[in-house]
Design goal:
Blueprint: H1 7-27, H2 32-54, E1 65-68, E2 77-80
Helix pairs in contact: 1-2
Length: 100
């Protein structure tokens, strides 16, 4: 997500802008093969940038609050990230069994 919008909307916007620029360049007399090559390469670069930025995992630490959005008609919630539980110590069998 970028600015609260899902990745597919940003990719759609980038593709639409790329197409509009390519059509305009060809309409102004540029060679369509060159425009397609350049447009395709830069479209891939912008797509990769969008996916890297939008695909980052959320980073929450203990004590951070976050909002839980529910379907319409139900209340939204706010929760706090709990600290992880303490690790439990493994138990050691004091008397190993014979033969194994």
């Amino acid at each position: 997500m970028i600015a609260g919008r899902p990745t597919n909307l940003w990719l759609g916007l980038a593709t639409a802008i790329q197409g509009a620029i390519a059509v305009t360049a060809v309409a102004l007399g540029a060679d369509p093969a060159i425009v397609a090559t350049i447009s395709g390469a830069w479209g891939a670069v912008f797509g990769a940038i969008i996916l890297v930025v939008a695909g980052q995992p959320p980073t929450l630490s203990a004590g951070d609050t976050y909002k839980i959005t529910t379907p319409t008609g139900q209340p939204n919630y706010e929760a706090t990230v709990a600290a992880p539980p303490a690790a439990t110590q493994p138990t050691v069998d004091p008397a190993p069994k014979p033969g194994g």
